[in-house]
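Handout, page 2. Input:
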Amino acid sequence: MRSRVALGVGCLVVALVGVGGRAQTPAADGIPTFTKDVAPILYKNCVSCHRPGEMGPMPLITYAQVRPYARAISAKVTSGLMPPWHAIAPAGTFRNERRLDDAERDTIVKWAANRGPQGDPNDLPPVPQFVQGWAIGQPDAVVSMTKEFDVPASGTIDYQYFEMPTNFTEDKWVQAIEIRPGSTAVVHHVLVYARDPNNTQRPTPFTMLPPANPAPPRPEDAARLAAAAERQRARSGQGGPQEQVAGSPGVNRGVLIATTAPGTNAVVFDPGTALLIKAGSILTFQVHYTANGSAAKDRSSVGFVFAKQPAPQEIRASAFVNARFALAPGKADQQVEAAIEFNEASHIWALFPHTHLRGKSWEYRLVYPDGRSQVVLSVPNYDFNWQTYYQYATPFAAPKGSRLEAVAVYDNSSANRANPDPKVEVRWGEQTWEEMQYSGITFTVDNPKAAAQQ
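Output:
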């Protein structure tokens, strides 16, 4: 995956400027030490990624691992690049915030500026314990691709779709869910959908509003979609219960239940809330592979931890998009809007803004039935390398008749150093050099019984 590789190399380049040598003697009074002051900060905020087998380019667990990167770590936390967090909101707004408070940041900077002393080994807190391969702990159930997919060394790879049965014999309430790519080097993202065995589609409590000033459709867009569907059908002959047949437009893949992408993956729902997966449901994995110069094999999986509480409140997931846009060549600061209107009183628990390399910023505004409005999510410096599902510490109400408006800003100019080609018009597409205006949303319905009778 190009973005993962670029991120790792960038971190390593910065890290190589770290000071050498070790300062293992106890620090003077008032100078932070690794064991007493710095390690607790790293264990709380960093080692979930910076540990063996995860996406962080170097482990940050022991003093020997951390000390060579003292100055690099100090520079990263001072600039705000690490931990990666891009929403602007008061501290505590989001339950999955990845940012240090002022005291934590000052501690790391002061420690690095004083040659990074180790301190008393007896002060070192216990190292966090992780289940190998799973951030959510040992799953109660795991569903995997039934066989490996061969990823070529080069070329464009269409999105791949794999269907697998859950084999759940009863309805399952899911407290935590996590996707594990089989090969992080070539997997850019995985979306997991769940379709109940009756192939029914539940209505959402909101309606997607038509986009303002939609770009006119082009004949080549319809032809491209048809060609992609035909390629998916051709590839579906690999046989077995894992079939690549769910990629064509109009196919009911069910509801989106899990996502992994750079910066987002495992989700643990609040006690008393859970995601419902019906008995006999079929899972569809949408996998975006990116060739990196070496052939690889992937067999991705999704793990579930089931809720222990009876009758939890149902968390639901969906998305809304604007696929009818056209970004003019060479133009910066182009806005693309999308909006939904709630026809049932609901609460919003999380939002997931997604664009590609030309995405610059996002803003979500809730407009109430009486005309009042408020910004509920602002991401002024969107980073394709860190696609975060912003989970609210306290879900906010979306009354019946309210609108959620999403505005994404794109930079298709040459000033955007990540822009694949500023000379072309850009429209909706699955590949990284194309664009999307996509918003994931998780929500609860305030009166689900009444909504079901509508």
